[in-house]
Fold:
Amino acid sequence: MAKTKRTKNAENEAKEEEVVKTEKSEKIVKTEKAPKKKKLGFALGCGGSRGVAHIGFLQAMEDAGIKPDCLTGCSMGAVVGGAYASGMTPKEMLEAVCKLKPLDLVDITMRPGGLFDTRKMRKVLGKYLGDVTFDQLKIPFRCAAVDMITQSVVTFSEGSVADAVMASACIPAVFKPVDDGERRLVDGGVLERVPVRQLKEMGANKIVAVDVLGRRSSGRKSASAFRMLIEVLGVMDNHLTDRRRKENRRFTDLWLEPDLGDMSEYTFRRFQEAYDSGYRLGEEHAEEIRALVCGGKKEG
Structure:
Protein backbone atom coordinates (compact mmCIF):
# COMPACT_ATOMS: atom_id res chain seq x y z
CA MET A 1 0.00 0.00 0.00
CA ALA A 2 2.81 2.37 0.89
CA LYS A 3 4.42 1.69 -2.48
CA THR A 4 1.18 2.43 -4.32
CA LYS A 5 0.74 5.64 -2.35
CA ARG A 6 4.24 6.83 -3.20
CA THR A 7 3.66 6.04 -6.87
CA LYS A 8 0.45 8.10 -6.95
CA ASN A 9 2.18 10.96 -5.18
CA ALA A 10 5.00 10.82 -7.71
CA GLU A 11 2.50 10.86 -10.59
CA ASN A 12 0.69 13.86 -9.09
CA GLU A 13 3.97 15.73 -8.60
CA ALA A 14 4.96 15.01 -12.19
CA LYS A 15 1.62 16.34 -13.47
CA GLU A 16 1.95 19.48 -11.35
CA GLU A 17 5.48 19.97 -12.71
CA GLU A 18 4.19 19.66 -16.28
CA VAL A 19 1.45 22.22 -15.60
CA VAL A 20 4.00 24.67 -14.16
CA LYS A 21 6.31 24.11 -17.15
CA THR A 22 3.40 24.56 -19.57
CA GLU A 23 2.33 27.80 -17.86
CA LYS A 24 5.89 29.09 -17.96
CA SER A 25 6.19 28.13 -21.63
CA GLU A 26 2.95 29.92 -22.46
CA LYS A 27 4.19 33.03 -20.66
CA ILE A 28 7.45 32.90 -22.59
CA VAL A 29 5.61 32.49 -25.89
CA LYS A 30 3.26 35.37 -25.06
CA THR A 31 6.21 37.59 -24.12
CA GLU A 32 8.00 36.79 -27.36
CA LYS A 33 4.91 37.51 -29.45
CA ALA A 34 4.09 40.85 -27.80
CA PRO A 35 5.41 43.68 -30.01
CA LYS A 36 7.76 46.13 -28.35
CA LYS A 37 6.10 49.55 -28.03
CA LYS A 38 7.90 52.37 -29.80
CA LYS A 39 8.30 55.56 -27.78
CA LEU A 40 7.75 58.54 -30.09
CA GLY A 41 9.35 61.90 -29.32
CA PHE A 42 9.05 65.30 -31.03
CA ALA A 43 11.90 67.83 -30.77
CA LEU A 44 10.59 71.33 -31.49
CA GLY A 45 13.28 73.83 -32.43
CA CYS A 46 13.66 77.57 -31.86
CA GLY A 47 12.55 80.15 -34.39
CA GLY A 48 10.51 83.02 -32.93
CA SER A 49 7.42 83.75 -35.04
CA ARG A 50 8.36 80.94 -37.42
CA GLY A 51 7.82 78.60 -34.47
CA VAL A 52 4.06 78.96 -34.89
CA ALA A 53 4.60 76.26 -37.53
CA HIS A 54 5.03 73.85 -34.60
CA ILE A 55 1.40 74.45 -33.68
CA GLY A 56 0.25 73.54 -37.19
CA PHE A 57 2.47 70.45 -37.15
CA LEU A 58 0.96 69.24 -33.86
CA GLN A 59 -2.57 69.83 -35.20
CA ALA A 60 -1.76 67.72 -38.28
CA MET A 61 -0.47 64.97 -35.99
CA GLU A 62 -3.66 65.05 -33.95
CA ASP A 63 -5.80 64.90 -37.08
CA ALA A 64 -3.79 61.84 -38.16
CA GLY A 65 -4.28 60.21 -34.77
CA ILE A 66 -0.60 60.46 -33.81
CA LYS A 67 0.36 61.47 -30.26
CA PRO A 68 3.92 61.93 -29.00
CA ASP A 69 5.00 60.05 -25.88
CA CYS A 70 7.41 62.84 -24.97
CA LEU A 71 8.41 66.32 -26.13
CA THR A 72 11.38 68.65 -26.01
CA GLY A 73 11.56 72.27 -27.03
CA CYS A 74 13.86 75.23 -27.37
CA SER A 75 12.80 78.90 -27.36
CA MET A 76 9.51 79.12 -29.32
CA GLY A 77 9.58 75.33 -29.53
CA ALA A 78 9.67 75.29 -25.72
CA VAL A 79 6.66 77.64 -25.58
CA VAL A 80 4.63 75.41 -27.90
CA GLY A 81 5.90 72.14 -26.41
CA GLY A 82 5.27 73.25 -22.83
CA ALA A 83 1.76 74.48 -23.63
CA TYR A 84 0.90 71.26 -25.50
CA ALA A 85 2.31 69.06 -22.72
CA SER A 86 0.21 70.99 -20.19
CA GLY A 87 -3.00 70.22 -22.07
CA MET A 88 -3.56 73.19 -24.39
CA THR A 89 -4.86 72.21 -27.81
CA PRO A 90 -3.21 73.47 -31.01
CA LYS A 91 -6.39 75.44 -31.74
CA GLU A 92 -6.19 77.18 -28.36
CA MET A 93 -2.51 77.95 -28.90
CA LEU A 94 -3.12 79.48 -32.35
CA GLU A 95 -5.91 81.67 -30.98
CA ALA A 96 -3.66 82.87 -28.15
CA VAL A 97 -0.73 83.63 -30.46
CA CYS A 98 -2.86 85.51 -32.98
CA LYS A 99 -4.05 87.86 -30.21
CA LEU A 100 -0.50 88.78 -29.19
CA LYS A 101 0.96 92.21 -29.84
CA PRO A 102 4.62 93.26 -29.39
CA LEU A 103 3.84 95.33 -26.30
CA ASP A 104 2.27 92.27 -24.65
CA LEU A 105 5.76 90.76 -24.45
CA VAL A 106 8.27 93.58 -24.21
CA ASP A 107 8.81 95.96 -21.33
CA ILE A 108 10.17 99.13 -22.92
CA THR A 109 12.16 99.97 -19.78
CA MET A 110 15.87 99.48 -20.52
CA ARG A 111 17.49 96.80 -18.35
CA PRO A 112 21.16 95.75 -17.90
CA GLY A 113 21.98 92.79 -20.14
CA GLY A 114 19.10 93.32 -22.56
CA LEU A 115 16.83 95.88 -24.16
CA PHE A 116 13.77 94.58 -22.34
CA ASP A 117 12.83 92.97 -19.05
CA THR A 118 11.19 89.51 -19.00
CA ARG A 119 8.32 90.47 -16.68
CA LYS A 120 5.69 90.81 -19.40
CA MET A 121 6.78 87.60 -21.10
CA ARG A 122 6.54 85.77 -17.76
CA LYS A 123 3.05 87.19 -17.22
CA VAL A 124 1.85 85.90 -20.61
CA LEU A 125 3.38 82.46 -19.98
CA GLY A 126 1.78 82.36 -16.53
CA LYS A 127 -1.61 83.17 -18.03
CA TYR A 128 -1.57 80.02 -20.16
CA LEU A 129 0.71 77.66 -18.21
CA GLY A 130 -0.32 78.71 -14.71
CA ASP A 131 1.71 77.23 -11.84
CA VAL A 132 2.07 73.79 -13.41
CA THR A 133 5.29 71.91 -12.67
CA PHE A 134 7.04 69.36 -14.88
CA ASP A 135 5.76 66.40 -12.85
CA GLN A 136 2.17 67.57 -13.38
CA LEU A 137 2.32 67.68 -17.19
CA LYS A 138 0.11 65.40 -19.26
CA ILE A 139 3.04 64.54 -21.58
CA PRO A 140 6.67 64.26 -20.39
CA PHE A 141 8.50 67.42 -21.50
CA ARG A 142 11.92 69.05 -21.23
CA CYS A 143 13.28 72.34 -22.54
CA ALA A 144 16.75 73.77 -23.07
CA ALA A 145 18.41 77.07 -22.19
CA VAL A 146 22.05 78.17 -22.14
CA ASP A 147 23.99 79.22 -19.06
CA MET A 148 26.25 82.14 -20.02
CA ILE A 149 28.51 81.50 -17.00
CA THR A 150 29.42 77.90 -17.83
CA GLN A 151 28.71 78.36 -21.57
CA SER A 152 26.77 75.12 -21.63
CA VAL A 153 23.26 73.79 -22.33
CA VAL A 154 20.92 73.54 -19.33
CA THR A 155 18.02 71.09 -19.62
CA PHE A 156 14.97 71.71 -17.44
CA SER A 157 12.98 68.71 -16.20
CA GLU A 158 11.62 69.85 -12.84
CA GLY A 159 10.12 72.88 -11.13
CA SER A 160 7.98 75.59 -12.74
CA VAL A 161 7.32 75.01 -16.44
CA ALA A 162 6.61 78.71 -17.06
CA ASP A 163 9.94 79.75 -15.51
CA ALA A 164 11.84 77.14 -17.51
CA VAL A 165 10.14 78.12 -20.79
CA MET A 166 10.88 81.78 -20.12
CA ALA A 167 14.61 81.01 -19.71
CA SER A 168 14.57 78.88 -22.87
CA ALA A 169 12.97 81.73 -24.86
CA CYS A 170 15.07 84.58 -23.46
CA ILE A 171 16.60 86.00 -26.67
CA PRO A 172 20.12 87.34 -25.90
CA ALA A 173 20.50 91.16 -25.92
CA VAL A 174 16.75 91.53 -26.59
CA PHE A 175 15.67 90.29 -23.15
CA LYS A 176 17.56 90.56 -19.88
CA PRO A 177 19.09 87.15 -18.98
CA VAL A 178 17.24 85.12 -16.36
CA ASP A 179 19.27 84.99 -13.15
CA ASP A 180 18.82 81.60 -11.50
CA GLY A 181 21.15 81.26 -8.54
CA GLU A 182 24.66 81.17 -9.98
CA ARG A 183 23.37 80.76 -13.53
CA ARG A 184 22.63 83.46 -16.14
CA LEU A 185 20.22 81.85 -18.57
CA VAL A 186 19.46 82.80 -22.17
CA ASP A 187 17.74 81.30 -25.22
CA GLY A 188 18.65 77.64 -25.70
CA GLY A 189 18.99 78.23 -29.44
CA VAL A 190 22.42 79.76 -28.80
CA LEU A 191 23.85 76.22 -28.58
CA GLU A 192 20.96 73.80 -29.17
CA ARG A 193 18.58 74.87 -31.94
CA VAL A 194 16.69 71.56 -31.94
CA PRO A 195 16.97 69.56 -28.66
CA VAL A 196 17.22 66.00 -29.98
CA ARG A 197 19.68 64.56 -27.46
CA GLN A 198 17.30 65.27 -24.60
CA LEU A 199 14.61 63.08 -26.19
CA LYS A 200 17.02 60.17 -26.32
CA GLU A 201 17.75 60.69 -22.61
CA MET A 202 13.98 60.54 -21.97
CA GLY A 203 13.86 57.09 -23.54
CA ALA A 204 12.45 57.93 -26.98
CA ASN A 205 13.49 55.39 -29.61
CA LYS A 206 11.71 57.09 -32.50
CA ILE A 207 12.56 60.77 -32.85
CA VAL A 208 11.15 63.43 -35.15
CA ALA A 209 12.94 66.80 -35.17
CA VAL A 210 11.17 69.91 -36.49
CA ASP A 211 13.51 72.77 -37.45
CA VAL A 212 11.52 75.88 -38.38
CA LEU A 213 14.58 78.02 -39.14
CA GLY A 214 16.07 75.71 -41.77
CA ARG A 215 19.19 76.97 -43.52
CA ARG A 216 19.06 80.75 -43.29
CA SER A 217 20.43 82.74 -46.22
CA SER A 218 21.96 86.20 -46.56
CA GLY A 219 20.88 88.98 -48.90
CA ARG A 220 23.06 90.00 -51.86
CA LYS A 221 22.94 93.70 -51.05
CA SER A 222 24.69 95.42 -48.17
CA ALA A 223 22.42 95.54 -45.14
CA SER A 224 22.22 97.88 -42.15
CA ALA A 225 24.67 97.26 -39.32
CA PHE A 226 21.97 95.53 -37.27
CA ARG A 227 20.83 93.37 -40.18
CA MET A 228 24.42 92.46 -40.95
CA LEU A 229 24.89 91.28 -37.36
CA ILE A 230 21.75 89.13 -37.64
CA GLU A 231 23.01 87.60 -40.91
CA VAL A 232 26.44 86.85 -39.42
CA LEU A 233 24.80 85.14 -36.45
CA GLY A 234 22.64 83.21 -38.92
CA VAL A 235 25.72 81.92 -40.77
CA MET A 236 27.28 80.81 -37.48
CA ASP A 237 24.04 79.13 -36.42
CA ASN A 238 23.76 77.30 -39.76
CA HIS A 239 27.16 75.69 -39.26
CA LEU A 240 26.54 74.87 -35.60
CA THR A 241 23.19 73.27 -36.44
CA ASP A 242 24.73 71.25 -39.30
CA ARG A 243 27.30 69.90 -36.88
CA ARG A 244 24.69 69.11 -34.24
CA ARG A 245 22.53 67.39 -36.84
CA LYS A 246 25.43 65.12 -37.85
CA GLU A 247 26.20 64.36 -34.21
CA ASN A 248 22.56 63.42 -33.55
CA ARG A 249 22.04 61.60 -36.84
CA ARG A 250 22.06 58.20 -35.15
CA PHE A 251 19.26 59.35 -32.81
CA THR A 252 17.06 61.18 -35.33
CA ASP A 253 14.62 59.24 -37.52
CA LEU A 254 13.19 62.28 -39.32
CA TRP A 255 14.47 65.85 -39.61
CA LEU A 256 11.69 68.07 -40.95
CA GLU A 257 11.75 71.70 -42.10
CA PRO A 258 8.59 73.60 -43.06
CA ASP A 259 8.70 75.89 -46.09
CA LEU A 260 8.44 79.36 -44.57
CA GLY A 261 10.21 81.29 -47.31
CA ASP A 262 11.64 84.62 -46.16
CA MET A 263 9.39 84.93 -43.10
CA SER A 264 11.19 86.81 -40.33
CA GLU A 265 11.38 85.19 -36.92
CA TYR A 266 10.57 88.60 -35.40
CA THR A 267 7.36 89.46 -37.27
CA PHE A 268 3.90 89.50 -35.68
CA ARG A 269 2.06 89.53 -39.01
CA ARG A 270 2.31 86.07 -40.58
CA PHE A 271 1.27 83.66 -37.85
CA GLN A 272 -1.45 81.98 -39.93
CA GLU A 273 0.99 81.44 -42.78
CA ALA A 274 3.45 79.76 -40.41
CA TYR A 275 0.68 77.59 -38.93
CA ASP A 276 -0.50 76.48 -42.38
CA SER A 277 3.05 75.60 -43.42
CA GLY A 278 3.52 73.49 -40.30
CA TYR A 279 0.20 71.76 -40.89
CA ARG A 280 1.18 70.87 -44.46
CA LEU A 281 4.48 69.50 -43.19
CA GLY A 282 2.65 67.26 -40.73
CA GLU A 283 0.18 66.08 -43.36
CA GLU A 284 2.95 65.22 -45.82
CA HIS A 285 4.86 63.12 -43.29
CA ALA A 286 2.03 61.65 -41.19
CA GLU A 287 2.20 58.19 -42.76
CA GLU A 288 5.98 58.15 -42.51
CA ILE A 289 5.79 58.98 -38.80
CA ARG A 290 3.07 56.38 -38.27
CA ALA A 291 5.32 53.80 -39.95
CA LEU A 292 8.11 54.65 -37.50
CA VAL A 293 5.87 53.91 -34.54
CA CYS A 294 4.55 50.73 -36.15
CA GLY A 295 8.02 49.41 -36.90
CA GLY A 296 8.97 51.18 -40.14
CA LYS A 297 12.58 51.49 -41.19
CA LYS A 298 14.65 54.36 -39.89
CA GLU A 299 15.19 57.20 -42.32
CA GLY A 300 18.56 58.88 -42.74
